[in-house]
Amino acid sequence: MLRRGAAGDVISALLRETGAAQICWNRLYDPADIARDSALKTRLTDDGIAVTSCPGNLAFEPWSIRTGADGPYRVFTPFLKACLAAPGPDSPFTAPKSLTPPATWPASDDPGTWGLLPVRPDWAGGLRDSWRPGEAGAAARLATFLDERLPAYARERDRPDIEATSRLSPHLHFGEISARQVWHAIGHAEAAGVQGTAKFRAELVWREFSHHLLYHFPDLPARNWRDAFDAFPWLDDADGFRAWCRGRTGYPLVDAGRRELWTTGYMHNRVRMVAASFLVKHLLIDWRRGADWFMDTLVDADLANNSASWQWVAGSGADAAPYFRIFNPVKQGERFDPEGAYVRRWVPELARLPDRYIHAPWTAPATVLSEAGVVPGRTYPVPCVDHATARNRALAAYEKVKVASQN
Ligand code: FAD
Fold it and tell me: How far apart are CA 221 and CA 210, in angstroms?
C-alpha cells in the first residue's frame, strides 16, 4: 500500500481507517530516521497505539558492539573481531502461511501519478536494465551470487571487468533483503564448505561498521572525523569537478566508473575508491562535494556507507587509508582491469586501442592513436591533471594537515 506525506500524518490516518491497535517496524539508524521514528513513536503511543520496533536492517545493533572500555569502536579490525565473537543475529523467521486480511483494504495511492519517472528525457533505461527492485529481485541476486560467484569472491572482487560481487547494496539499503538473511545465508554456505565466505562476511561487516560510526558520530557526513583535516586547502575547481562528474578527466578508469554510474546507478567498489581518491587527491576537491554527488546518483546511496567510505578515502576518517597513499589511476587500471575490458565497455571511444595503451592513451604513438580512431582532446580528453604533478601538489597540501595535527 503506497501513501505519501509526512510519516506521522499518513500513518495516523491509516491507523484510523483500519482500526489497527498495534504497529511494528524495523529500526533505521540515520540521524534523520531516528528523529522521525522517535517522534512517531511518541505520537502514536500518546494516541494509545502499541508500537514495537525491531532489529533487521543490521546484523548487530549499533549499541550492542562495545569496546573493552565500553565505548564505540573506531577501528575496523577489532570491530570485525567483536562482531564475529558476538552471538550474531537470530535466524530470520519463515513467512507465515497466511495472514487474516482486513475486512476492507484501505485505498492505495497510484504511484504513476507521483511523477517519479523521468520522461523528457527518459534517462532511466540503463537503471531499468540493470536492476529488479523488490524482495524477489533481491532474493534472486543473493541466490545467483551464492551459486556462481561466492567461491571466487575473495580473488575477483576487486576486478571491475568481472561480475564478481553480489550487487546486493541497493537491496540492502532499501530493506528488500535484510542483513540477517544475508548473514545466515553466508553461514549456510560456510557450513557447506564453500570458499570465500570469510571475505564476504567481512564486507558485510564494513556496512555494519559504517552504521555503527554514523550512529555514534552523527556528524560523520558533514565534518572531518579528524579535526586536523579542517586545515586542508581544498580547491574550488569548477572545471575539474565538472570533468569528474561527466567522466571526462582523461583518465580512462576514472571516466569509465563515472559513466558506469551515470548509466546503471552503480559503480564497482574498486573504481569508487580510485574515482573518489582522484577527486580528493588529484583535484583537491572537498570529499563532501563528491559524497553529495554520489548520494544524488548511486542507486545504493546510503548515508552511513557513503560518508564513512568518502572519509576513509580522503584520509580524514576513522581508520582511514593514509593520506599519502595516492592511487595512480593508470596503475590501478593495469592491475584490476588488465585487458581493459571495463574501460572498453564504458569508454567506447577508446575501444580500439591496444591493451598496453588503454589505461594511458596519451602514451600511445600517433600512428597507434590514429589507427584506433582516437584524437586526443577531440574524441577523448587529454588528462585534466598530470599524475606526478598532482601527487606532489596533494602531498604539499597534506603538509598543512600534518602541521595542524601537531598544534
Ligand atoms: P559486495 O562486494 O557484494 O559486498 C556485499 C555488501 O557488503 C554490499 O552490498 C554492501 O552492503 C557491503 N559493503 C561492501 N563493501 C563495503 C564498504 N566498503 N563499506 C560499506 N559496506 C560495504 N556502499 C553503499 O551501499 N552505499 C554507498 O552510498 C556507498 N558509497 C561509497 C562511496 C565510496 C567513495 C566508496 C569507496 C565505497 C562506497 N560504498 C557504498 C561501498 C561499496 O562500494 C559498495 O557497498 C559495494 O560496491 C556494493 O557492491 P556489492 O553489493 O556488489 O558489494
Answer: 11
